Amino acid sequence: MQISKRIKSLSRSQTVEITNLARQLRQDGIDVISLSVGEPDFTTPKEVIDYASLMAEQGKTKYVATDGLPEFKQRIQEKMKRDNGLDYELNEIFVGAGAKQVLYNLFMALLDPGDEVVVPDPYWVSYTEQVKLAEGVPVIAHTTADTAYKLTPEILDEVVTEKTKILVLNSPNNPTGSVYTLEELQALADYLDDKDIMVIADEIYEVLVYDGEHISLASISETMKKNTIVINGVSKSHAMTGWRVGYACGDSEVISAITKLQSQLVSNVSTPAQYAAVRAYDMDHTFLEEYNQLFKKRRDNAYQKMVELPYVTCIKPEGAFYLFPYFKETAEKCGFNTVDDFVKAILSEKHVALVPGSAFGYPDNLRLSYAVDEDTLNEAMDRLKSFIKEKLENTRK
């Protein structure tokens, strides 16, 4: 069987591959600690599971509207107004099988062959590959630690051309944990004001902000609201990664287009899963506050241990649940040619799974997820420290 050129050219998700490898090693009896996975380490709240089960028992297992269960769309509408100061009509809201699928639908609906999509680096692994699948051209806007890996109008201006169709903006950011301030978003909005560029604002980590506050780019002005599609979901906020429920809010014409595509793909997102999301959005906000404080404590612990490692520099993440340290010098001092080689070696020798920065377009860094319990995190950091110490001693002999 001849596989299509489209799929042959597609890169595998390195985060998924490393997580699967760690899982396989565990099944083989090896004590692997995975700091590679991008999901909360605890179970979906019981009341969410119970409600989904109840709805299924009551027969809520049939097809529903392609663009989403009306009850869930109403909850999204209420949430966007309450938390983000944004008013959307129900025909401006779309529910997909996770934020990842919503993004893919958007690229497929908005891009013609050759259209350019600006993606600031470091970037989540699927942005560029999805753009290519839609026959678009990903254009990387290079950011640095000097701006906390955040896009500025000056950086953006260097890559925008007459072919630019979309800008992808992720805040809080995966993999850096950076969060855009009001002033930074205003500067980008001012630059984009007279440009015919659609912004896809990926806000899936919205509730995980520890310093400052989350602000939606779409809330900056009416122009930005019109030209921005906001992406969000319940995966990260309510520990529901496996339920696969995400959504988009924005221009009704765009929502109609991705709904048309959805009708030919999966018809609708799992009905019980959408009822679970309804219950998640009905939960007391105390859950989210406790959840946020737990991850803030983990962030502080992981960051402090990371910056104590030799030759490592790292910005302090303001959100999400990742560290993205510069590791090139450490890797080289330990005798490795690349950070990728370092990551492979520590998995093999110390059984700690990390993700090389090359997966995010930034090969001199690596990503560490602190979405694990405190004991596991401490053990992983001890192994990392021990591994570096051993390698440094060996290179000095």
Q: Layout of helices and strands, plus pairs?
A:
Layout: H1 5-8, H2 14-27, E1 33-34, H3 46-57, H4 70-84, E2 93-96, H5 98-110, E3 116-121, H6 125-133, E4 137-142, H7 153-159, E5 164-170, H8 182-192, E6 198-202, H9 222-226, E7 228-233, E8 246-249, H10 252-263, H11 271-282, H12 286-307, E9 322-323, H13 328-333, H14 339-349, E10 352-353, E11 355-356, E12 366-369, H15 374-396
Helix pairs in contact: 3-11, 4-11, 5-6, 5-10, 12-15
How would you characterize the overall build of this protein?
This protein has two domains: 150 residues, Aspartate Aminotransferase, domain 1 (Alpha-Beta Complex), CATH 3.90.1150; 238 residues, Aspartate Aminotransferase, domain 2, CATH 3.40.640.10. 44% of the residues lie in helices and 13% in strands. It is built from 15 helices and twelve strands. The strands form three sheets. Strands 2-8-7-6-5-3-4 form a seven-stranded mixed sheet, with helices on both faces. Helix 8 links the parallel strand 5 and strand 6. It is globular. It starts with a helix and ends with a helix. 47% of the residues are buried.
Which features does this protein show?
single chain; 397 residues; alpha/beta; Aspartate Aminotransferase, domain 1; Aspartate Aminotransferase, domain 2; 2 domains; seven-stranded mixed β-sheet; three-stranded antiparallel β-sheet; 15 helices; 12 strands; 44% helix
